[in-house]
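[AMINO ACID CHAIN]
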Amino acid sequence: MTDGDGNPAFTLTYSEGFSAAGIGNIDSDDNGATWNDEFTIPAVRITVVTVDPVVPPTATLTCTPTELLAVAGQVSTCTVTLSAPSTTDTPINLTLPATNPGYTTTCTSPLVVPANATQAACTITAVANTTPGAPDVTADIAIAPPTTPDAYTVEGPAAQIIIRSNGTVVPPANPTPVPTLGAAALVSLVSVMGLLGLRRTRKSA
């Protein structure tokens, strides 16, 4: 707002709570102590429109299955799900599992949910147990607060995956091969056994 000479003189402040519009001007001859409305001389129009506040999406984490055996091929898939998609990529901060020889993981932080999508996933894979009496191993993973305030809110508990040794030991990957007979050797062996059997039969007669 300006004075009669066009110089900035006053500040207009709005504190939410209603919507209104007005046409005209106001002036003051006593430095703002009192104000006069001049509706016959339109000079300014102010429109205040209330809008709904922006509600950030919720982010949840689920891992399936939650128990694995300590053998090759056992995998748990961890999925982050947003309650609503965003028009831009949404990085989700994770508290990652501690490093452990009992499993490997593709999970990284942040895990990015692509634009216009609601899910992103990573995996935790069991490592075969080769130590007798090895204990079970636990992998904990959770969603951490966002780097950008109000990018998302965390909902639901953290996830925990247990890799059970089950008291088993996986044999070495390359076991010693068992010797086998070729076709010719097998025929020779059968012939020898047949002759021996025929000889015993003649002796018995």
